[in-house]
Design a protein that fits this description.
alpha/beta; TIM Barrel; 8-stranded parallel sheet; 4-stranded mixed sheet; transferase; methyltransferase activity; MTTB_MeTrfase
């Protein structure tokens, strides 16, 4: 018994697909570079102005070349992760410019960035690192990417997500990481590509795809529209336009390099129509997640969604409830790659140290929840039930000792003690426990060893901060 499912009927998915094909063939998707338009023309795709019109045959021909899984490599083989192999990968935040720690909100600094790397490197639920998890504001814009890449390679060993904004940004990122690994064959960096809704790819994202395809590095293409503003207010309509955007991007990558690994993605939230702002901590966000999973499965490729999402401005009950809905939806859906899994507050704007720790605990619970339980002769244990009857106890049985660790999750953070014990421990709430865990993780962090070649390489990356 496992709690993973596709809640869409075949008829519903086919209806969404057919509507998507109509969008691709009748409405078109805008690509804002002449090189991209020329590539489509060379492959007999209809082009009018900046719009391309992709027919269904071209679509399926491209989709068939996308691998259903791939390896994203870290510093050592044990750091590698399989994307699309049936195991959900929970990934860090992406893009906040503020951090929160000790109930204080401020612009991210370089020191914050380093400490966040240490937290994610020591995480037992986050197996990848995102160079763009946040952006330090205490250094010149031109210094930020070099600083972040250098610190990622120096302080972590897990597979990396990189930068994709334009040719120079993408080339510097991919070549820096490849140079560190001294390996041109492996997939060592994952790039995130974001269409501009409705139905458009701008120059910077096209250039990012060009570079990653040329360097044979995987990309994640995900729409993030705002229903009622940049996509239809109805969820089905938004799924169709999002699907058209993502599929158009996937077709482009396969024209550039057939067989390039791509993750099908979506991170569209609900919309607070009172202010026309994203409402990421909503039940609709979870429903969109199920839609993305069903569509990606229909096309036979890995899927990405959002993670522990909330619109709350602080770590409170709202943050906990909203984050649980979204991370549990992704886990039940069997999403392959869950971005924004830990630490998000205020609609993607803040990354909170303490919430990272709390979200990690929530992810452990979600993983246990969806894993279900086995129903076998051993787990039913009829002979033991008969032996104990109505007068004995199971607590001292060999069966209990052999199975209790695999039967129940043991909380690392959340309190399970009686009130009196909690009172004796200064009545610490979950935020205080998380605050202490942050300090402990930072204190116990050990910098991974570098080879002489790697150390020399990193010394050659010049940053003034």
């Amino acid at each position: 018994m496992k709690i993973r499912d596709n809640f869409f009927t075949e008829q519903e998915i086919e209806k969404l697909h057919k509507a998507t094909v109509r969008v691709l063939t009748e409405v078109g998707v805008e690509f804002n570079t002449s090189d991209a338009l020329e590539l489509f023309r060379q492959n007999n795709v209809k082009v009018e102005g900046k719009k391309v019109f992709i027919d269904e045959d071209t679509l399926w021909k491209a989709l068939k070349t996308v691998p259903s899984e791939f390896i994203l490599s870290g510093r050592t083989e044990k750091d590698d992760v399989l994307v699309g192999g049936g195991k959900t990968i929970y990934a860090p935040a992406s893009g906040p410019v503020y951090v929160q720690r000790n109930n204080e909100r401020r612009s991210t600094t370089g020191e914050d960035y380093i400490n966040l790397l240490k937290i994610f490197q020591t995480s037992d639920v986050i197996p990848v690192i995102n160079a763009n998890m946040t952006e330090p504001q205490d250094m010149d814009f031109e210094e930020r990417d070099g600083f972040r890449l250098k610190k990622c390679l120096e302080l972590t060993t897990k597979p990396l997500m990189g930068f994709t904004t334009g040719t120079e940004d993408s080339e510097n990122c991919v070549r820096t990481i490849k140079g560190f690994y001294d390996d041109t064959d492996k997939h060592v960096v994952l790039g995130v590509i974001s269409p501009v809704s409705p139905l458009c790819f701008d120059e910077s994202m096209i250039e990012g795809m060009n570079v990653y395809a040329r360097e044979n590095q995987p990309v994640l293409i995900a729409s993030c529209s705002l229903p009622g503003a940049t996509s239809p207010v109805t969820m089905a309509g938004t799924l169709v336009t999002n699907n058209a955007e993502v599929l158009a991007g996937i077709v482009y990558t396969q024209l550039l390099r057939p067989g390039l690994p791509v993750i099908y993605g979506g991170t569209t939230p609900s919309c607070d129509m009172r202010m026309v702002t994203p409402a990421i901590g909503s039940p609709e966000t979870g429903l969109f997640t199920y839609g993305y999973r069903a569509l990606s499965a229909h096309y036979g490729m890995p899927c990405r969604s959002g993670g522990s999402l909330t619109d709350s401005n602080t770590v409170d009950m709202q943050a906990g409830i909203e984050s649980t809905y979204s991370i549990l939806s992704a886990s039940i859906a069997g999403i392959d790659y869950v971005l924004q899994s830990c630490g998000i507050l205020e609609s993607f704007n803040s990354l909170c140290f303490e919430k990272i720790i709390i979200d990690e605990e929530n992810i452990r619970m979600a993983k246990r929840y969806v894993s279900g339980f086995e129903i076998t002769d051993e787990t039913i244990a009829f002979d033991l039930i008969k032996q104990i009857g109505s007068e004995g106890t199971y607590i001292t049985s060999d069966h209990t000792f052999a199975n209790f660790r695999n039967s129940f999750i043991q909380a690392k953070l959340f309190s399970k003690v009686p009130y009196e014990n909690w009172e004796m421990n200064e009545k610490k709430d979950v935020f205080q426990m998380a605050k202490e865990a942050v300090a402990q993780r930072l204190e116990e962090y050990k910098k991974p060893e570098l080879t002489e070649v790697q150390a020399e390489y990193l010394n050659g990356i010049e940053v003034t901060v």
